[in-house]
Amino acid sequence: MSASDTQLITPSGVFVDVHNMEWAPSRVAGSVQKTLYSDPETGRSTVLFKMEPGGVIPFHEHPELEQTYVLEGSLEDDQGACTAGNFVWRPAGSRHTARCPNGATFIVFFMKPPLRLPQPE
After folding, report:
1. Which residues constitute the domain of residue 54?
2. What are the per-10-residue average pLDDT scores of the chain (121 residues)?
3. Cβ distance 89 to 40 under 8 Å?
4. Residues linked to residue 35 through DSSP beta bridges, in sequence order
5. 21: which residues sit within 8 A by CB, 6+ positions away?
6. Residue 11 belongs to a domain
7. β 104-110/45-51 pair status
């Protein structure tokens, strides 16, 4: 299904039919995504992710504010766990490795794409 099949563009907004969008491979092994919004000029995006149990998002930095709302499962790092129905935001410059021990579905609002970094020793 193409983007035009899952979007209704009106003068006052773009309605996205998320339910009928196909999941696409993600950069992260064991995960898939649906890109709900993307602006290549600014780097802003809104992405729905689904991670398999045991999934790991490798060490990375958020160059700008990042906001995540967890729909199912949990997204965990060394600072804590964001569980279903909860929200976490991270300031510009924050770095972490995120894990989904039991799998997770979550929506992320990026101001700029995250930067992959070498794993610290």
Report:
1. 23-116
2. 72 92 92 96 96 94 96 95 97 94 97 84 72
3. no
4. 47
5. 1, 6, 34
6. no
7. antiparallel
